[in-house]
């Protein structure tokens, strides 16, 4: 079934919707040139997560971990948000209640103008003191010092991101589940839906009666549970939905 036909019932629903939540993953930033994790040239195909994205790896070799994050900061810092990020930032003004819950640490949603953002896995532009837990924002690439140290107490700084085996911030996670189980429509864009607890958010939305819409070039473990699953890239599909939403005649609904 072509997307235009598939879209018509969804547009009807969206026209009547006031509460929308979006869960995004690395796929939404793929068209900006940022590698995903598990795709063909995904980061975890080339690098061993246990050597670079765990607390044990950081304790073992903070310089190596910071060199890797600095390399990623260099890539991310040179990239721009794409049409997918743009549509979501526009929808924040279109829908009365609209939030983006992202697994991404690249800050591209904010760069595109989104403000209602929950960052589940932290942010690569933020550094945290391993002693005082204070968080600073630093966009310098390359970093001035490897590994960087806290200017206040001299302790090591670590990336303010959630590593494998670490818990997410409890209040952020609680808000994420609240936004998922109180929305009328949830979009799930560019995630392989294999990493928990993020992958449970769309299920919470579906269980609470929301319409769940997946956007991904490939099927995921979530696909059997969603109402709509559009096969394609976020930077292509979201503008099509936005276009149809903007130009469809609201009188049709009456
Ligand atoms: N548009 C939409 N989806 C895309 C696109 C695109 N242009 N390109 C790829 N995808 C899809 C892939 O098909 C895949 O399902 O995006 C998904 C990316 O999956 P992952 O690489 O597993 O990334 P993500 O789901 O965000 O990973 C979750 O795992 O490694 C940890 O902390 C890291 O936040 C990350 C978490």
Structure keywords:
254 residues; alpha/beta; 6-stranded parallel beta sheet; 3-stranded antiparallel beta sheet; 11 helices; binds adenosine-5-diphosphoribose
Strand content: 15-25%
Bound molecules: adenosine-5-diphosphoribose
How many angstroms does the end-to-end distance come to? 26 Å
Radius of gyration: 19 Å
Helix content: 25-40%
The biggest sheet amounts to: 6 strands, parallel
The average pLDDT value, as a whole number, equals: 93
The number of E-state strands comes to: 9
Q: Which segments are poorly predicted (pLDDT under 50) over 5 or more consecutive residues?
A: none
Structural class: alpha/beta
Overall, the morphology is: elongated
Enumerate how many helices there are, as a single number.
11
Order of helices and strands: HEHHHHHHEHEEEEHEHEEH
User: Strands across the major sheet, in which order?
Assistant: 3-2-1-7-8-9
């Amino acid at each position: 079934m072509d997307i235009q036909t598939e879209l018509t019932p969804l547009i009807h629903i969206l026209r009547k919707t006031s509460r929308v939540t979006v869960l995004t993953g690395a796929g939404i930033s793929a068209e900006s040139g940022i590698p995903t994790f598990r795709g063909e040239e995904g980061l975890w195909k080339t690098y061993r997560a246990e050597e670079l994205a765990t607390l044990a790896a950081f304790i073992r070799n903070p310089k190596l971990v910071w060199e890797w994050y600095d390399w990623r900061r260099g890539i991310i810092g040179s990239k721009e948000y794409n049409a997918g990020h743009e549509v979501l930032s526009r929808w924040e003004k279109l829908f009365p209640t609209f939030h983006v819950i992202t697994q991404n640490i690249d800050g591209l949603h904010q760069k595109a103008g989104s403000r209602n953002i929950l960052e589940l896995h932290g942010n690569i532009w933020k550094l945290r003191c391993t002693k005082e837990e204070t968080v600073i924002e630093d966009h310098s690439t390359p970093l001035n010092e490897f590994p960087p140290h806290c200017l206040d107490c001299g302790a090591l700084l670590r990336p303010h991101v959630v590593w494998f085996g670490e818990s997410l911030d409890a209040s952020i996670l609680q808000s994420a589940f609240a936004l998922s189980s109180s929305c009328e429509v949830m979009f799930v864009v560019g995630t392989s839906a294999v990493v928990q607890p993020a992958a449970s958010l769309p299920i919470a939305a579906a269980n609470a009666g929301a319409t769940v819409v997946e956007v991904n070039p490939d099927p995921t473990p979530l696909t059997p549970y969603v109402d709509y699953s559009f096969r394609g890239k976020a930077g292509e599909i979201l503008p099509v939905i936005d276009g149809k939403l903007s130009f469809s005649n609201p009188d049709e609904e009456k």
